[in-house]
Structures are given as structure tokens and as C-alpha cells.
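// run 5 | inverse folding | seed 20
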């Protein structure tokens, strides 16, 4: 005889083990009488079924949807991981919705932000905190720092000039698609060499 144990809160099937006979009840009945532990039943659960969990409802085993560990979406940017048994909550989906279309202004802001990050990362490659930190050395008494700031300043101006020309082509329709990566690749490269 086996007992089939389930979670005391969710009722989810956990494991099976051999039941223990009650010596006194068995002696009185003249046959083996088995003890039924708490949160267990003598009724065997049904076969496993993909995408479900087996739950003891107090009277019988039943299948309940099991989406635990899956990500569900309420909108393109709002998601959560399922941690409980049961149906997917109303208003949520396993499929991520399409991204909302961005306005031209939003796309331009994303591209300009990418250019600013490119400037900052270039300054950081020489040990400055940001492009503004590098430019603060334009009047430095240290010739190396002053030169780096001057080179960076000239490059920054050429970067933004090229960037705005490309963005104008984009908004006018001369360029139909322009990703941040494509924009950065079209910008001039910096030269730190004294010329």
C-alpha cells in the first residue's frame, strides 16, 4: 500500500511512499489497516500531462494548468514571471505584443541619445568620466590634457554636424531606415594625434 503526498497549500502532488500499518487497528480488524498521513491520500494520481500539475482537491486528483517559470506580457514593456499554478491571469498573454510605433520625434531622440553615449564612451576610453569631463580640460595647464580636450572638441563638433545632416536626410525621407548602429558607423572617427 502506498500513500501519495501533496503540498498542504497548493494540493500539488509531491511524491509517493510506502504506507505504515497501524498495529492496534490491524490487530482488531484482523487485517492490515494502514495509517494515512496528513496531506496524503491512498488514491494514486493520474499520469503526468505536459503543461499541467496534478492537484488533490480534497476528494480527487485533477489537472491544473502549470505555467510556472514562463514569462507573460500585459504590454510590450510590462511582463512578469508566472510563479503560481493555474490559468494565465486575465489581461496577460504568453505572446509579447508588438512594439508600439515610435513617432519621428521619439526615433530622433533615441538616435541622438546613442550619439551622446558614443561621445561619452570615446572620452571614457582615455580615462575621462564623460565627454563633458574631457572638455573641461580645454584651458588646462597640462599640455597633454589640453591637447586631448582640443582634439575631442573638434571631433565632437564634426560628429554632431554629420549626425544632424544624417538626421535631416532621415526626416526628409532621403534615408528610409536608420538604426543607432548605422548612424554611429557613419560618424567621423576621432584622431588623438597632434597634427
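// decoded
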Amino acid at each position: 500500500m502506498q500513500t501519495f503526498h501533496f503540498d498542504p497549500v497548493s494540493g500539488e502532488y509531491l511524491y509517493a511512499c510506502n504506507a505504515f500499518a497501524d498495529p492496534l487497528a490491524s490487530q482488531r480488524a484482523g487485517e492490515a489497516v494502514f495509517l494515512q498521513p496528513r496531506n496524503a491520500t491512498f488514491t494514486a494520481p493520474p499520469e503526468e500531462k505536459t503543461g499541467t500539475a496534478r492537484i488533490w482537491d480534497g476528494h480527487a486528483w485533477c489537472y491544473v494548468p502549470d505555467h510556472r517559470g514562463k514569462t507573460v506580457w500585459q504590454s510590450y514593456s510590462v511582463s512578469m514571471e508566472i510563479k503560481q499554478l493555474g490559468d494565465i491571469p486575465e489581461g496577460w498573454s504568453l505572446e509579447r505584443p508588438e512594439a508600439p510605433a515610435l513617432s519621428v520625434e521619439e526615433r530622433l531622440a533615441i538616435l541622438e541619445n546613442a550619439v551622446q553615449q558614443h561621445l561619452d564612451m570615446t572620452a571614457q576610453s582615455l580615462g575621462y568620466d564623460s565627454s563633458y569631463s574631457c572638455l573641461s580640460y580645454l584651458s588646462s595647464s597640462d599640455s597633454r590634457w589640453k591637447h586631448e580636450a582640443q582634439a575631442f572638441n573638434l571631433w565632437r563638433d564634426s560628429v554632431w554636424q554629420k549626425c544632424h545632416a544624417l538626421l535631416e536626410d532621415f526626416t526628409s525621407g532621403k534615408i528610409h531606415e536608420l538604426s543607432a548602429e548605422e548612424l554611429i558607423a557613419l560618424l567621423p572617427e576621432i584622431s588623438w594625434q597632434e597634427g
